[in-house]
């Protein structure tokens, strides 16, 4: 195994946390707020996460959703790299079927050059949007073809990142730049390093593929909680040691929000639940305010959805959230928890991460 690759992947728990804690950000835009404000909040959260010892900060790819301004992970990560110094930055994830592998290799090679040794490339096979938008992104209506071709796309992307297409391959003379080719060119001093690849999933497909390839795996517990344990079991059962990892390493995305009072936490997470109701019923919009979420006239079907949705969000006071996160880590055996705090305003999200850091005694950077 390449020890440097393994060190880039594995996190170290801080404070009294049993596993490393990380952050997943969707750059959410609330009613009355702008995308500019949402992006500034993301920078503030990344700085807070770095200052308090969270291990990594990822952004997710979504499209055609007014309340989620993370359509371009590479652009956002470049912005975050300019405002941070140590925390790992990555995609949680890039939806590979939406893009040509060479383009992703170039984008993340550029990010690696901007922030050497602290960039992760998380990849998913879902579109990150509805079918019509996916068709517009991919300029095809054969969407299943993209998902079915994911292993081949992944293999192609990996070869571009490593610059190791075999002689005779149609792409053997094509190089992703910035990248390893610069180190092997006459007079080259470019680092041959490249971002470690993670596979993301909410079912068993990517879990098995990550295991077979010996790659780290990230599971979307925050919207597929019932599949978490089966997917992690499948990943571990399928795992084969590789040059990247000698043992499985799995993180799970967890929706969690802490507030100074339990009632306030409930008010804040209800905004995200109503936002999901609107998305699932074909009416995506900006994240509603707590006042609107509380005043909304929920139909019986909507109420049932909201109640089920909220059971999978760890929320309450800092101590209650800590207890819920500890229980989840123990129950799933996850090697790392990646927390996403979705709410209407940036102030509530920032306060949540601060409270969680305090609950675990995460140290403040000097």
Characterise this structure.
With 366 residues, the chain is an alpha/beta fold. Helices cover 45% and strands 13% of the residues. The protein has helices at 3-9, 35-52, 73-81, 101-114, 131-138, 143-148, 150-162, 181-184, 204-213, 228-238, 262-280, 290-295, 300-311, 318-332, 346-359; strands at residues 21-25, 56-59, 88-91, 94-95, 119-124, 197-201, 217-219, 250-258, 314-316, 336-340. It has an 8-stranded parallel beta barrel, surrounded by 8 helices. Helix 2 links the parallel strand 1 (21-25) and strand 2. Helix 3 packs parallel to helix 4 (101-114), helix 9 packs parallel to helix 10 and helix 11 crosses helix 13 (300-311). The radius of gyration is 20 Å and the shape is globular.
Task: Tell me the distance between the termini.
Answer: 34 Å
Helicity level: 40-55%
Strand order of the largest sheet: 1-2-3-5-6-7-8-10
Q: How many helices does DSSP assign?
A: 15
User: Mean pLDDT score, rounded?
Assistant: 92
Largest sheet: 8 strands, parallel, barrel
The total count of strands amounts to: 10
Instruction: Output the helix-strand order.
Output: HEHEHEEHEHHHHEHEHEHHHEHEH
Strand content: 5-15%
Helix/strand-derived category reads alpha/beta
The radius of gyration computed from the alpha-carbon positions, rounded to a whole number of angstroms, is: 20 Å
């Amino acid at each position: 195994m390449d020890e440097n690759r393994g060190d880039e992947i594995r996190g170290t728990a801080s404070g009294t946390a049993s596993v490393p804690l990380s952050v997943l950000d969707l750059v959410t835009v609330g009613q009355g707020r702008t995308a500019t404000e949402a992006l500034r909040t993301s920078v503030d959260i990344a700085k807070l996460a770095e200052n308090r010892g969270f291990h990594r900060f990822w952004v997710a790819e979504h499209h055609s959703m007014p309340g989620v301004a993370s359509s371009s992970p590479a652009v956002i990560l470049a912005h975050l790299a300019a405002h941070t110094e140590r925390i790992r930055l990555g995609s949680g994830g890039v939806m590979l079927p939406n893009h040509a592998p060479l383009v992703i290799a170039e984008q993340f090679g550029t990010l690696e050059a901007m922030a050497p040794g602290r960039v992760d490339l998380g990849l998913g096979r879902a579109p990150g949007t509805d079918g019509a938008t996916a068709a517009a992104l991919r300029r095809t209506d054969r969407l299943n073809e993209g998902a079915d071709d994911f292993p081949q796309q992944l293999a192609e992307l990996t070869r571009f990142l490593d610059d190791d297409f075999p002689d005779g391959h149609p792409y053997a003379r094509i190089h992703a730049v910035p990248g390893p080719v610069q180190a092997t060119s006459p007079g080259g001093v470019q680092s041959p390093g490249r971002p470690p690849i993670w596979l993301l999933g909410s079912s068993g497909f990517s879990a098995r593929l990550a295991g077979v390839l010996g790659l780290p795996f990230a599971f979307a517990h925050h919207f597929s909680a019932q599949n978490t344990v089966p997917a992690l079991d499948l990943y571990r059962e399928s795992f084969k040691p590789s040059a990247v990892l000698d043992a499985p390493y799995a993180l799970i995305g967890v929706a969690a929000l802490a507030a100074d009072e339990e009632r306030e936490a409930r008010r804040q997470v209800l905004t995200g639940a109503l936002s999901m109701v609107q998305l699932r019923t074909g009416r995506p919009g900006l994240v509603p305010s707590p006042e609107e979420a509380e005043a909304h006239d929920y139909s019986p079907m909507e109420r049932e959805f909201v109640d089920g949705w909220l059971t999978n969000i760890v929320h309450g006071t800092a101590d209650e959230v800590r207890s819920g996160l500890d229980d989840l880590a123990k129950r799933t055996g996850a090697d790392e928890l990646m927390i996403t705090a979705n709410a209407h305003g940036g102030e509530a999200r920032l306060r949540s991460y601060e409270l969680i850091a305090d609950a675990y005694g995460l140290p403040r950077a000097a």
